[in-house]
Task: inverse folding
């Protein structure tokens, strides 16, 4: 598949999501959700067309892009995406428009890198094509077009993975560093660099010089990538503990903040995290404002969200077990694949990463379809590989692919899940109804 086709397919999928958003947002009045919704200026033509992409957490990102970090709870939203919106708005004049334009660009680039990565890993054009098709209409599609970080994060993650396994580590470090400025779990991407470097060391001549070289190299790479998180925490410390900011709060916004009990950067007393030996706000903000912690999300009222997330949990487990089953049993637990002496790219780090994401989202956060769909390509690869096994012909025909989809129960379920959640999720999200 050439670059033009990838761009055309990506843009077409976003156009479909836009149309569903536009129609559903105007057919049905928005649900009055108990969510962050600061006062805004009068409606413009942009809001008329794109208003459905600015709901839920998108309000936070757009607010930060316009006003900066003035509320303490905003610290849960990392700065790269809202900062990018802020810069582009100097040209467009509209924050919502800027956020949607950026995500269209990020999504197209994500698709390109996912295709390149899939080709690199599997050396198979059909698997790469099927992978891209799965990504284009993944069940969290609406979040990739809305003013969320999904498109930016997937772009940086897929790019970093491609450069990691193609041997261009410098570019991978840059991509993973930026992913750490986009979302907190960006730091986990360092694991891929660690895995590939340790595997190379095990396969090479094991001398003291090589050992110290790999330790120093990984230490430097970790320091660079983690510095994104550390710098952001220091930035928040300057704002909320030292009041080192020139942010202005208008009367309407101040009134809204007081009505809802939001803590403003100059409010006293300062929060507990300001006085810690290591004054990092992240864990404090996640626990106090977002109830993130072990089993904190396990409440009766959250049962509908667990039901919505059940299919992605099932697919994640199925993908992990599916690839593990294909591995040599001795190699599955053979230092987690590090002792594998082949030169091919192995899937162990992807399996480990997805497993960690799944467990942490179930027990510490909440099972978020968008969180998993934007962070790891393993689910897309498993679906693509399974479909590839069903189709032996080299020349693909739509009728043949459709026949295989409808005849295999697992593929059929996955297909209808992806399509229905792309539609239903966009409808729910656009009208301020819960969707995760």
Result:
């Amino acid at each position: 598949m050439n670059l033009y086709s990838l761009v055309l397919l990506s843009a077409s999928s976003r156009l479909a999501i836009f149309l569903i958003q536009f129609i559903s947002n105007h057919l049905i009045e928005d649900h009055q959700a108990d969510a962050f919704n600061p006062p805004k200026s009068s409606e413009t033509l942009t809001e008329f067309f794109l208003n459905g992409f600015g709901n839920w957490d998108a309000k936070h990102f757009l607010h930060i892009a316009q006003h900066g970090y003035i509320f303490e709870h905003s610290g849960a939203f990392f700065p790269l995406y809202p900062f990018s919106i802020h810069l582009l708005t100097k040209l467009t004049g509209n924050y919502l428009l800027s956020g949607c334009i950026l995500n269209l660009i990020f999504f197209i680039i994500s698709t390109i890198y996912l295709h390149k990565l899939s080709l690199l890993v599997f050396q198979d054009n059909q698997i790469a094509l099927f992978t891209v098709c799965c990504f284009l209409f993944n069940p969290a599609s609406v979040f990739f077009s809305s003013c969320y970080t999904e498109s930016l994060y997937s772009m940086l993650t897929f790019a970093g993975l491609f450069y990691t396994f193609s041997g261009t580590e410098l570019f991978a470090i840059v991509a993973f560093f930026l992913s750490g400025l986009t979302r907190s779990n960006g730091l986990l991407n360092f694991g891929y660099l660690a895995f590939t470097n340790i595997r190379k060391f095990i396969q090479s001549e094991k001398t003291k010089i090589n050992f110290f070289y790999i330790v120093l190299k990984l230490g430097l790479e970790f320091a660079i990538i983690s510095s994104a998180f550390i710098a952001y925490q220091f930035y928040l410390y300057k704002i909320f503990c030292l009041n080192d900011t020139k942010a202005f709060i208008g009367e309407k916004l101040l009134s809204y903040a007081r009505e809802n009990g939001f803590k403003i950067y100059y409010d006293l007393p300062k929060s507990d995290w300001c006085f810690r030996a290591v004054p990092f706000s992240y864990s404090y903000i996640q626990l106090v404002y977002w109830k993130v912690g072990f089993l904190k999300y396990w409440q009766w009222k959250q049962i509908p969200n667990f039901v919505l997330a059940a299919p992605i949990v099932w697919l994640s487990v199925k993908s992990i077990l599916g690839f593990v089953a294909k591995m040599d049993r001795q190699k599955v637990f053979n230092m987690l694949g590090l002792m594998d002496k082949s030169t091919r790219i192995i899937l162990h780090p992807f399996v480990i990463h997805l497993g960690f994401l799944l467990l942490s989202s179930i027990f510490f956060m909440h099972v978020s379809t968008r969180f998993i769909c934007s962070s790891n390509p393993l689910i897309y690869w498993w679906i693509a590989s399974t479909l590839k096994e069903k189709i032996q012909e080299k020349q693909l025909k739509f009728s043949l692919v459709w026949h295989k989809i409808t005849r295999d129960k697992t593929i059929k379920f996955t297909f209808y899940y992806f399509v229905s959640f792309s539609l239903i999720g966009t409808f729910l999200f656009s009208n301020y109804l819960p969707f995760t």
Summary: The mean pLDDT is 90. The longest helix spans residues 208-240.
